[in-house]
Design brief:
homodimer; about 400 residues; alpha/beta; 8-stranded mixed sheet; 6-stranded antiparallel sheet
Chain lengths: ~400, ~400
């Protein structure tokens, strides 16, 4: 278990620099035709160069057998216990579309759905209306104000939207209105603790007003369901814990949002891999920690596109050449979870990691791959230990105890 | 996490004998010229013989990335959670100079310092006065009694001393008087809980009396600062947990003190490595657990003296020959942390360990080194698990559950 209080008590600011390169969904499974994973198939001279001088291993983002979502995967990489600090669905949905939440706001995921004349749900997704239609309906509902609480409504995709309740004394501890099945009526939102009475009441009023506004003319989208009510968690920032001035470079809103949650500054960047590394180089002197996120590998894995995932890894390898030239004190390359193209989704398989620093104790591994990492000097370990290891190798941690 | 209650419930006294040889600071980093660590450079036929018949691995004394002080490093070796059982600075300083503490005593680290005519600190170390001068000043302050609390003052080195508050109803939960900077006045000691009011009051009176006694004639040492107020923690003894009759052989006071804290008997010994092993042999029939501590490797590492550290390891190897001849049931050789000569200090790198017993399941490793231990049968594990493993291999643990 990660002990952030301990890390906080021994971390010290220093000029040394740490770069954490996250190739989203890095880990894979062997192609049945070649017996090689995506990473093993890719031609990666720069990664291999780092591994040869560095140390490698395999991480478990949450724990063996657990397939992490993007949020737990990244929280673990940043050193936070991903189980203890689980982030609510509503908040994640908001973060994923770049909606800025304020402390005390409550966010919920919404579905436009279809109800019949008796009020029973007949289609939880309203026939997957278009994203344009969703945006039009969100405009219809956006800004409803109930008892000084403003409800902001943002379209996501197809039938999905986000509702943000902005006002005083809101507690997210309420049940969902989505019955998760058809043939029944939407559920009333009910408070699970006395402090949540106010939000439950406002949410039910909002749903009633939404129903009224979604008149028959918008059929099949004539009702809204809400679930995943949650507030932004209050996390100690990476500056508070590690005394780092941390910057994030990510082309997707979700990862920028997660970085903001832990107090990183998000740098403006163009979205190609080369652009992201160029952004790092331009800002190199202003920060001592960089989180650089590459989405493409995960997206290719989710699509089941083995070759494209290989290609993304090769692009990262290519871009690493210049980063190595800048000589950061510590370079970590890993993923937030595995996304094998064969499984077309996130998976539980442990994630390859390499750590390069002048002060690591190198192992004998000379190739960055799942199978080679098995005999790496870092062994197999929880991803929450990556940050302490990176900090140690950057000589930013003082001795614990005398 | 170590579960001492579980171990206690299944440990049984038996005639089998365990020897734990701690080569302080054992782990290292490769010499850039040879690519080999201190241990890998040393010629160690006896250690290799033990590894060939035994099992090996790598331990994390506290957790990955954390550099342990000597106290956490040793507590972990003895099976105690080093975070939960962190020992205060004052107590450690007292232990380090062989001062016997009694339950309820409070120890503090002291500095002689210089204050100007306005009472502001101008030098926190009083120009690093000689150890002789320090001893003279300690005599001046030693034995001051306030409200039935006697304050015993012992010199450490240069400007540093230890103050032990001996009396009833003392609680160490107080702030420090050392402002940790110059140009400001020493701070008043204040209680952090109501029970600590009495100690805070007595400490302030002591400091005032010390100031009066350190008249201008002792300039630059005209004031005293106190920090690290702490009491001896109450630990279950190794006899209580493991039912062992445990003996310690160590040439440095700090390690004798730590051994006493966990209930070991400290054996008189001459200080060379050969002497320490001879002491073990002489007392072999009287105990069933021996902790034998070798300081030289850590001292050489701290001095950045790679060759001397190699030589200390070779001396230990040589002395092991006779120990092997006595045929203890279990021999464990490890360190309390790494001290790479390259870093000139303790480090976070995992520590090689070998365990030899008739009942271990041998691995294929035939050489005691950091890189070979990577593929050892013990894997990489928290140092707190060493004692349960040693106990199991000595057949001193009964089955857990039916």
């Amino acid at each position: 278990m990660i002990n952030l209080e301990l890390i906080k008590s021994i971390s010290n600011p220093s000029p040394s620099k740490i770069v954490l390169v996250v190739i989203d969904g890095l880990g894979g499974l062997p192609n049945p035709e070649t017996g090689k994973t995506e990473l093993e198939t890719a031609n990666t001279p720069n990664l291999n160069r780092l591994v040869a001088k560095g140390i490698c291993g395999l991480t478990d983002p949450v724990s063996p057998g657990i397939t992490p979502g993007s949020a737990p995967g990244h929280l673990a990489l940043f050193g936070y216990d991903p189980i203890e600090r689980n982030i609510g669905r509503g908040v994640l949905e908001a973060i994923g579309i770049d909606v800025e939440l304020q402390p005390g706001n409550v966010a919920a995921r919404g579905n436009f759905c279809t109800v019949d004349e008796k009020g029973l749900v007949t289609d939880r997704r309203a026939g997957r209306i278009s994203t344009e239609k969703c945006a039009e309906l969100c405009e219809l509902l956006d800004g409803i104000t109930i008892d000084d609480v403003q409800v902001l409504v943002y379209p996501v995709r197809e039938h999905r939207f986000v509702a943000v309740f902005r006002g005083k004394d809101l507690t997210a501890d309420v049940t969902e209105s989505d019955p998760q099945q058809t043939g029944v009526a939407p559920l009333a939102v009910t408070a699970l603790s006395p402090e949540a009475d106010r939000l439950a009441d406002i949410a039910n009023q909002f749903i009633a007003q939404a129903k009224a506004r979604l008149t028959t003319e918008h059929h099949p989208a004539n009702m809204a369901l809400l679930r995943g009510f949650s507030s932004q968690p209050s996390l100690p920032t990476m500056n508070e814990i590690y005394k780092l001035k941390a910057a994030a470079i990510a082309s997707y809103p979700m990862y920028r949002g997660l970085a903001k949650l832990v107090g990183m500054e998000v740098l403006d960047t163009e979205t190609s891999i080369e652009d992201e590394f160029a952004t790092l180089k331009q800002n190199y002197s202003n920060y001592d920690f960089f989180f650089l996120h590459i989405k493409g590998a995960d997206a290719a894995g989710e699509d089941g596109d083995f070759a494209r995932k290989v290609s993304v890894i090769e692009q990262v390898d290519n871009a690493l050449s210049e980063l190595i030239g800048i000589e950061p004190d510590v370079i970590v390359v890993t993923g937030d979870h595995s996304t094998p193209a064969l499984l077309k989704g996130h998976s539980w398989h442990p994630v390859p990691i390499l750590l390069y620093s002048k002060w690591c104790r190198p192992d004998r591994v000379s190739e960055f791959s799942e199978s080679a990492c098995l005999s790496g000097g870092l062994g197999r370990f929880p991803a929450t230990q990556i940050m302490p290891l990176a900090m140690a190798n950057a000589l930013k941690l003082v001795k614990f105890g005398a």
